[in-house]
């Protein structure tokens, strides 16, 4: 197994007591920290009609982050393609690649990233958009490709920019597509781990080499909170639990401070749901997380990159978690 790379995803959440601008400032500060720590990439999600997230205008946030960092690759985790005309996406990311060469990633998802009423307000036919996802990925490949393979409509300045495309998925459907097109595949294990094993196996088994890749490239995204002790990590993870439960309740509240009384805040069923999510996450000391990662890799096979998302209320503790996670990966790679 080759060395595993490490990267990060950010949904740009608002912490309790913050403004939208505070959340965007925190997004940039975290990117700068991860740039210093030599993280491979920093991806920003796309969500709409979510009062606790500031990640609706993803390409603008990517540009803002690129402007304030130096080396780290910045991209979309992802652009929800049913919401956007491929031509516009190509123009935007071709422009980003022109300004910040070799630092732009384009992760692509087939879901709208919101509820269906909001999806309709985004002014594209969501039903057709989901089904047209494979064809629209091909359109993007053409727009970013060589000039002699272009049609009349071209996405200037995207032509010949070859912005790397990544297929995102939370089920087995996208695994088939990524394998067939020979593109890197990113599985959303941080919120939908149920079909992860099957999707990874499908991607590896059916992968067809392409101009983009001669062999599979598999990224898995997981929740991670790494601290000095297991007890401390579990305490900080109470913020993560509150995020999940607020979504389940349909409230979508800002990230809450950690609590010692998680059982008192949740119903017994919600508490069990939270504990299950903890089991699927990398929560604990460096030693505990290293052991969890080793078990994960033993079960899921050939993973090239672990992308982590960390809902931690205190930003300094979040920095510390990402620093400790880097050390875990370095120990794993020795």
From TrEMBL:
<comment type="similarity">
    <text>To bacterial alkanal monooxygenase alpha and beta chains.</text>
</comment>
<feature type="domain" description="Luciferase-like">
    <location>
        <begin position="17"/>
        <end position="300"/>
    </location>
</feature>
<dbReference type="Pfam" id="PF00296">
    <property type="entry name" value="Bac_luciferase"/>
</dbReference>
<dbReference type="InterPro" id="IPR019949">
    <property type="entry name" value="CmoO-like"/>
</dbReference>
<dbReference type="InterPro" id="IPR036661">
    <property type="entry name" value="Luciferase-like_sf"/>
</dbReference>
<protein>
    <submittedName>
        <fullName>LLM class flavin-dependent oxidoreductase</fullName>
    </submittedName>
</protein>
<dbReference type="GO" id="GO:0005829">
    <property type="term" value="C:cytosol"/>
</dbReference>
<dbReference type="GO" id="GO:0016705">
    <property type="term" value="F:oxidoreductase activity, acting on paired donors, with incorporation or reduction of molecular oxygen"/>
</dbReference>
<dbReference type="InterPro" id="IPR050766">
    <property type="entry name" value="Bact_Lucif_Oxidored"/>
</dbReference>
<dbReference type="InterPro" id="IPR011251">
    <property type="entry name" value="Luciferase-like_dom"/>
</dbReference>
């Amino acid at each position: 197994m080759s060395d595993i790379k490490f990267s990060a995803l950010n949904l740009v959440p608002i912490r309790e007591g913050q403004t939208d601008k505070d959340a965007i400032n925190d997004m940039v500060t975290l990117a700068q920290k991860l740039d210093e720590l030599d993280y491979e990439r920093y991806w920003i999600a796309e969500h709409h009609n979510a009062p606790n997230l500031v990640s609706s205008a993803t390409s603008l946030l990517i540009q803002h982050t690129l402007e304030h960092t130096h080396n780290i690759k910045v991209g979309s985790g992802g652009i929800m393609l049913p919401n956007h005309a491929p031509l516009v996406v190509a123009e935007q990311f071709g422009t980003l690649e022109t300004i910040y060469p070799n630092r732009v990633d384009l992760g692509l998802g087939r879901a709208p990233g919101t509820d269906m009423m909001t999806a309709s307000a985004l002014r594209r036919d969501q039903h057709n958009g989901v089904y047209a996802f494979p064809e629209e990925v091909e359109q993007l490949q053409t727009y970013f490709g060589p000039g002699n393979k272009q049609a009349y409509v071209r996405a200037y300045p995207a032509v010949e920019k070859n912005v790397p495309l990544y297929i995102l998925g939370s089920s087995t459907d996208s695994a088939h597509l990524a394998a067939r097109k020979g593109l890197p595949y990113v599985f959303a294990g941080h919120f939908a781990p149920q079909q992860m094993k099957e999707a990874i196996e499908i991607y590896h088994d059916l992968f067809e080499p392409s101009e983009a890749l001669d062999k599979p490239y598999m990224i898995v995204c997981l929740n991670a909170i790494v601290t000095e002790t297991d007890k401390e990590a579990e305490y900080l993870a109470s913020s993560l639990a509150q995020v999940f439960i607020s979504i389940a309740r349909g409230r979508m509240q800002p990230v809450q401070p950690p609590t010692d009384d998680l059982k008192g805040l949740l119903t017994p069923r919600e508490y069990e749901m939270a504990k299950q999510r903890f089991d699927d996450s990398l929560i604990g000391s460096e030693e505990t997380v290293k052991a969890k990662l080793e078990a994960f890799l033993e079960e899921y096979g050939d993973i090239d990159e672990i992308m982590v998302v960390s809902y931690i209320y205190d930003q300094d503790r979040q920095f510390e978690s990402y620093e400790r996670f880097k050390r875990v990966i370095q120990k794993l790679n020795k």
